[in-house]
Specification:
By secondary structure, this protein is mainly alpha-helical. It is 36% helix and 8% strand. The protein has a domain of 69 residues. It is built from 2 helices and 2 strands. Strand 1 and strand 2 form a beta hairpin.
């Protein structure tokens, strides 16, 4: 075996050990509500339970984004390997534009 082969084995072993870390806390993901919606477009039935998210300026959508960002920040803070790389800005900034079409 050459040095390069050993290097890949070490990287694989380290990745395996990191993946098997004994993180004690279970994370509870924020709920994403489903509202049944279907429409027919060009003869095809389109079903989309998350269509309400397309209204990104609505209070519900912005609240959902905020919950997702809070969960992500909590997850990142618990990760012992990324303590030096904390996010300084929100993951998804609030939309700055308004609805163009109704």
């Amino acid at each position: 075996m050459t040095f390069m082969d050993n290097k890949y084995i070490y990287i694989l072993a380290i990745s395996f050990l990191i993946g098997c870390s004994n993180q004690q806390e279970e994370f509870v993901y924020p709920d994403s509500k489903k509202i049944p919606f279907s429409e027919e477009v060009h003869g095809y039935l389109i079903e989309d339970d998350y269509r309400w998210m397309e209204e990104f300026t609505s209070d519900e959508s912005q609240e959902w984004v905020e919950q997702q960002n809070n969960f992500t920040q909590k997850f990142i803070k618990k990760n012992k390997f990324s303590s030096s790389q904390r996010l300084k800005t929100p993951l998804y900034p609030k939309p700055k534009m308004e609805k163009v079409f109704e």
